[in-house]
Protein 1
Amino acid sequence: MSQAAAAPSYGQSLLDRVLAGTPRGEDPLTHVAELPARESRFTQWPSWIHPDVVDAVRGNGIPLPWTHQEAAASLAASGSHVVVATGTASGKSLAYQLPVLTALAEDPRATALYLSPTKALGADQIRAAIALTEQAESLATVYPNAFDGDTAAEVRQWVRANSRWIFTNPDMLHIGMLRSHQRWSHFFRNLRYVVIDECHSYRGVFGSNVALVLRRLRRIAHRYAADPVFILASATTAAPGAAASRLIGADCKEVTVDGSPHGPRTVALWEPPLLAEVTGENGAPVRRAAGSEAARIMADLMVEGARTLTFVRSRRGAELTAMGTKRLLAESAPDLTERVAAYRAGYLAEDRRELEAALADGTLLGAATTNALELGVDIAGLDAVVVAGFPGTVASFWQQAGRSGRRGEGSLVVLVARDDPLDTYLVHHPAALLDKPVEATVTDPSNPYVLGPQLLCAAMELPLSHTEVEQFGAVELLTRLAEQGLIRRRAHGWFVTAESNPHAAVDIRGGIGTQVAIVDAESGRMLGTVDGGRAPATAHPGAVHLHQGESFVVDTLDLEEGLALVHAETPEWSTSARETTEIVVTSVLEHDDHGPVTVALTEVEVTHQVVGYLRRLPSGEVLDSVELDMPPQRLNTRAVMYTVTPELMERAGITADCFPGSLHAAEHAAIGLLPLVATCDRGDIGGVSTALHQDTGLPTVFVYDGHQGGAGFADRGHAELLRWLHATRDAIGSCECAAGCPSCVQSPKCGNGNDPLDKDGAVRLLGAVLDHLRGDR
């Protein structure tokens, strides 16, 4: 064996150091994969690029473009909408900078628009654009500038009058530019390109809203005789061209072959052990918290001198993980305690920039962060990334993992599983994470609860023609809105009424319905808002509310007034709501018969009520359950469902008294595993199971979208039912607990207190269902 083959990689050496610090008797490592390095593939500068742009890019240290950069840029320059979907740190920015800057250099009136989901990413891209435009006289009048909620009023006027490349977000485009498009007429008239960065983040209700905002943008541009080309940048996702086409409402070509280099990576999957001394609800075992485990791993890596970034799913978690790392370092390497910090949204911009610079130059050796550092912000030279809890999608996992190894050297990525069915499944089925195609982005712009308010916005911007309304399939929808006095139909189109104020009523980030303001009762300070539909579960009396590192407890919630009053308090526990749910089928959209098993995609009315909440310690231990009396909430949405006959369950070895627990456990686990096939979070969906449902007369399991009208998640689950339920069964079966725990069949928001649950019965039930589904396919 050669010396090169025998020597462990740098990432493996770091992993060995972390394993050496594992307590005796523990074996948390479930899988290790060595991902090979990838070589650069360069190409020549195309002749269509303006010479000044080539000189500026070369001046910024880029001698030649990678193949995917040139391919996407050339498609855009030829007039094709295009999405470039390649890995983290693959230089996707250059793919749109080349055509945009060339157009701006060749035509002194041309304009361009850049959209990003976060301000931090937009600010990063503005700096890059300024660095390029300052190097060429032909780009001197571009004036790249931000136009967002942080832009002062007097600066906004200057930007509107002078900037030819504006950097904003979909929220400001919706409410600050399209609503007052007449004031932007010169900008829209000359609009050549629209850049949509990190477009994979536009999914669910947020993505559906953004898709309709972009259709409104194209409509306004056409009003001013412009036809801009859309250039989209995405993480690696399944079918990026189809997803981008659905997002912008026009055919979009895709570039997916990555020509950028990266060093070898060691990817380790890590499952914290079950704790013998701590029990959860109904005495179920609890795992060591992913954040605590990640803090120990990061401390060990920092002792080895490895620059490390730890991704945590919440702001509070990021702060706690950084604090835990500091405590561990105080014992083993006190000189390193000042070289670790937390980074998250909510910090002042100058504080974020200082942390980014300290990470980049090595002053800061470790940071615990939310996904605020997942998108775009350029941080080089990281040796290791720790992911504390699967981030929800495979796309996000690879975005976070891609932060490591930017110097072309080896690196380590560790995924630490949370107490969650999906995390459990992935660490025991590594191919589902490391070998599977990344999820397809789910959006549904036809959702009437999203489409109606968006069409009101469009009609206020420019009256809707009868042809446009028919193209949207929205005649019946607008007729209902007309009956509410929000819009009027006239011989030459549809016009909003004076009573309508549609732009202010739309929360494109996903809230539908009245917003509830969260207010500090002592100071009167407004801390934020929550969607009225979710307020009973997240802002009920007694709920712990976190805001920019501060902790508050809710005193009162008034849904009619749209107000939740809170007081400052930092309890040692967190809270999670418990809800009861009833579901009624209102229509069947698709139905498949598999003998004793039937599968359907349905429209349903869900009635759910928050009946209490649990108080949990950071270890996962349940302190107590507090009862609440909250009003019921009704939701019209879409669900995927399956029924089984009692005879099939009995043949599978499930006795009648175990029907409810088996169905209940299978439903909980299926909710946890749906994000494997649809780009959603567990909080986006809900479920109901019953041994005898009134609409089917059979044992039935439902999983539904938690948004009015649906968000496309149930549809995706229906389309991928076989793979989804197979993964659900495997996740339950591979969990090492005896009778069910949060890693397999327990749900943190179960209104029945996770009782009854039958883990063995769920495995038997799902096996029987899968046998019949496979037999017919």
Protein 2
Amino acid sequence: MHLNTVKVHIKRRLSGWRIVSLAGAAVIMLPILFVLLSIFDPPNNNWVQIRQYLVKDYIAQTIQLTLTVAVLTTLLGVTLAWLTAVFDFPGKRFFRWALILPLAIPPYIAAFTYSTMFSYTGVVQTTLRNRFGIVPNQELVTVSSMRGAVLVFTLFLFPYVYLITKSFLEKQSASYIENARLLGRNGLSIFLRITLPLSRPAIAGSVSLVIFEVLSDYGVTSYFGIQTVSTAIFQTWFGMYDADSAMRLAAWLMMIVIGLFLVEMLLRKRRAYSSTTSKSRPLVPRRLTGIRGWAAGLFCMIVWCAAFLFPLMQLIVWAGWTFDSMWNAGLFRLIYQTLIVAVVSTLIIMIFSLIAAASNRTRSTASFVLSKAITAGYSMPGAIIAIGVLVVFLKLDKVWAAFHHQFTLGGTPLVISLTLAMLIAGYVIRFMATGYNAVEVGFEKMGRKYTEASRMLGHGMTATFFKVDLPLIKGAVMSGCLLTFVEICKELPLALILRPFNFETLATKAYRYASDEQIFEAAIPSLLIIGISLISVYVIHYLDRRWEQ
């Protein structure tokens, strides 16, 4: 069979898989569109009050928090990436991977940990008073403020910028930096005139991840009492029981996200970032000796301790205090509930990701649009996804209620809105991108030659997928499974809104303990989340090292 004939035959046989992909993309986009279109609905009395007195403050504080965190994470992440990629100093081999570890601690856990550590009865102020006789100014050490939120987000989100920028510098900038050194440029001049311009795409991409994390946050801002659009959605829904106004606030938050996308597109318009040579070699670090080397190591040590070691040690101490009372059947049920919903959601995501990625292997405009639609949920804050899913499921229950009334059936008409199906749907929409992107990368590395060869030998599409494609991309599939599973276990806003009555996950339970000022009791659920998150960090580090090889 001629090769071109095989390709045409494959495309025809993929049409059924493409239909499934299109249906899945439509399901993912439906809640987002419901939220976006709600901005055109007639407002109620609550919304008139919210728009007149509160929306400006919500948006102003959201923008202030987001921009400040974006700037500080850029400064910290790029500086650490520059040090560990370009220079060699004492402790570099340790810090090169250890600086990724703060990603294992969700910001909402770090928020109540640091807030308690720096409180009047916390370990920091108690040590200063009892051992050194220092009574610090409460306004300076209080973490529960906008300043504290910026600190927490910066310390626990900078690894996004650090990891992506470091990887870019190590793989793409060697010839430019070495040429600049030969021309007599020093370290600071190279950093400002060579490294920063070259790293702009990597920095922009990583900072966008930080911005999305801040916009989707509810735990940190609500615990510190900061009025952002995300916290306003929860207050409107749980405090005023006003779904319409909550949807409008979610629509405003979505408009901010879309605005950020447009700004990023305008900034990159007509600008190309590519190497002038196809040759690429790893960057050879320059040795820092004397005080400069120890200063670099000390700086990395301070950041690592503040962003990982200190909060982890504090949580371990608190867990020891409450272990006897917390380690019981209730905790095991909590672990089971978290794992079962994460496993089911991950399986659905990976199955659909395999179908969508396998049917989307052609480089066409339709494939590009489909991939963007499938992964759109990850760029949307969890509150938006939650409100959209909630509205869709309530409308489905209204349809069922009409059917129920017409045929005079017994029982309650509320069926799917009271089950785990709503929470699982929210997880699937929110984290489809993690599974799909992992599978798509696996297919890109594999290429099409093995699939086409199998089809030329007469194997069907399904047989080819299971016997050829799947074994070749199993590493990517496993990575996607792990990353998706961990993200679901950490997710807080979706679980708070969409979980059924009397159903808790580790994330919601830890947050509720902290909100009720039961900080010590929140330690064990928090450590379990961190332990699961360390899996994600290990996968990221493993993939990074494998890419280097």
Protein 3
Amino acid sequence: MAKTSSKNILHILIILIFNSFLAHYDAQNLSENKIVNDTIRKSDTVILKKEQLEAVVETKADNIRNDIPKKMTYLNNKAQVKYQDMQIDADYISIDWDKSLIFARGELDSLGKIKTPAMATQAGKTYEYDEFTYNIKTRQAIAFNARTEESEGVIVAERTKKYNDSVFFMRRGKYTTDEYFIKKKDTIADYYLLAPNIKLIKGKEKSQVITGPIQMYIEQVPTPLIMPFAILPFSDKRSAGILIPSFGEREDVGFFLNGLGYYQPIGEHFDLKVLADLYTKGSWNLRPEVNYKKNYRYTGNFSADIGTTVRGIKGLSDYSKSSTYRIAWRHQQDSKANPFLTFSASVDLVSNKFYNNTVNNNYAFNQNNLNAQQNSSISIVKRFLTLPITITGTSSYSQNFSTGLADLKLPVLNVAINQFYLFKPKTGVRQGLLENIAVNTGLNFNNYVQTNEGELFTKVMWDKMQTGLKNNISLGTNTTIAKYFTFSLSANIDNALTTKTLTRTYNPLTNKVDDVLNKKIAGYSSFSTSASLQTVLYGMLNFKKTSGIQAIRHMMTPQIGFSYSPDFSAANFGYYKSYYNDRGEMTSYSIFDKGIVGSPNSGLVQAMTFSINNNLEMKVKSKKDSTGIKKIKIFESLNFNTSYNFAAPIYKWSMFTFSGQTTLFDKINLNTGLTLEPYQIVFAPGENSGIRTDNFGHFSVQGFNAQFSYPLSSEIFEKKNKEDTSKKYKKKGEIRNENYYFDDDNYSRFDQPWTLNINAQYSYTKSLTRFGNKMASVGLDGSIKLTPFWNITGNLYYDVISKEIANTQIGFSRDQRSFTINFNWIPYGQYKVYDFFIGIKANILRDALKYKDRSFTQPNAPF
């Protein structure tokens, strides 16, 4: 018995020790794997050791099963796993605790295809996948058919590997900014960029997509738009990127890529663009541009065009090679920055034949190639809080492409004193001539030289430079006489100094007049005064109440004046000298001619001036007007001017000039001008140049011009009570046809707005020639929106005199929802060129893949 009891005690001790060992082993095993139960439940929370994981893994699903031997957890139906900032939602999730792996899969349909993707959310960003494997420890992941969104862009890749929270590698990724595809209103993107390999780099401020070879697909159809690589933004911040070019052909230089380049933001206030134009016949152009901006202070940019234009075939007579350049600077100060000190700059320095030789087609489409002159200026304006003075400093450079000469002013300083009244009363309103005397005065300091490209900033240029100082004082006053007349008086005084004077002689050997500028300081003072009397007269012609024309009103503003100026060509002033011309006649000239301070008047002026301004209107019956009466302008203005100089020895009458402006039928704009010569001009037989005689009364047309414009549009022909399309047709298209309405027969209905401007101009100038010169042209420009997505624009100008087409341009644009297709064509003229471009509209790609060279200096920039 004792033996048996002892044996049982031993067995009991062995069992207790073994159970204790098993209990210890199971407790340790459960602690390491965070497994608390092996039953089906709605939610679970498991905790791993601190050295293995840094946070709690929370799980939730309709069905949860733990497999303890395999160290696995299975979640089915509305499964969810949370770890740190990562949340995974899927139809099915499995967790391998031994390998620290999470596998998630979307919901399958009856055919085994994914119908609802799995989703992962991290740092506020949501990603969609068909299948997804995530390592809890390393935070690395591999996903299939992953959809990654950021701002306005989305990437869908067959395989995505998450290296860390900042770097993603993708295989066969499709990049698009189609808003409908992003918002899942459409299952097919209207365009995407396909790359076999993509690297997505995510940052705190911005993200970037770096690809290998990339090709554009439109409506899933591959296009020839292929790049060897691309750097695309993937955030709403400024990002570096490739600038996509347009392509086309220009008759003189061949096929081209225009605007291929790269964009790089530099810090907060700068960015850089480098564009290139490449042509198959050897021409090239490089266009760097730096933009800068500081909010509420200033904006500006530096840009350049440097290139070589090659025409013809080397070795043949038509071959030519020329280099061109253009350097530009724009700077504008914010009006709020400093109201007392303003600085601005608009500088354009170009080679003399730049616009005729550049291969930058933008100048042809913008018609800059017609420029005859290029102007540049820099100015600074200083104002004072307590002083009535404004100081303006400017420098300007004006190039004349026809002569090859340039006018340089460096610098010009102008000091202007604000207008003041000499006898202004301390209180009350100014009355009478004395109290209304206003004084304007100022000082102008000027440095000027006319030079060419070769002499610019050389000793020759500095030797030719003129310096001048000029002061002007003007006084004016007016008052009312007899209630209906306005009487005005004015006086003008000029004082000037200059460093150059003119000596003019006739050279019989060359049969030319030689002008020599002498380095000599000289000055002059001049004076003039004038008085005028003006009134306004009204006349009204009324008709019967039954008449269609109710009344005609005529407003006439006649003015008569007198002006006086001494004869500063008199010998005692010393301002004028004489020389013998080619006919041996003594000819007077001013020593200040060709100077920068002007010349005093030559000859005594005691002239009576006459002018009449007219306005003619008509009132007619109109059922469209609420009052039943409508005003029609016959002539908005019809003016006449001339003068008679009592002191002139001959030709006392000046030219008779007429000008008029009116708008017919509220649409047709007409401007016209006429100049009549009051003295007879006689011509010798066979001579084209005539001689002006003192035989008054033989009026001849010396100049005539007329400009006509007639703007037409679809709105003119639309009835005011026209029913809106959206109200008339209720059926609306879906997805890609949402801008269309459909009638009961399923025909689309939409508005087709259009504009057409008809322009015509004619001018005739004769002077002392027998036949004169004529210029006449007719122009058309307009646009039509064929559909809500198709737009056509164009212009056509025809020279009536030469019977040639002067300028023609046609443009087509197609709105493809998330991108636009643009085609521009110039079929006639110096530049026969067509240009084709596909431009993305998304704001995220404003600095890359764009048609217009936008930068942060523009209003829509994110600063």
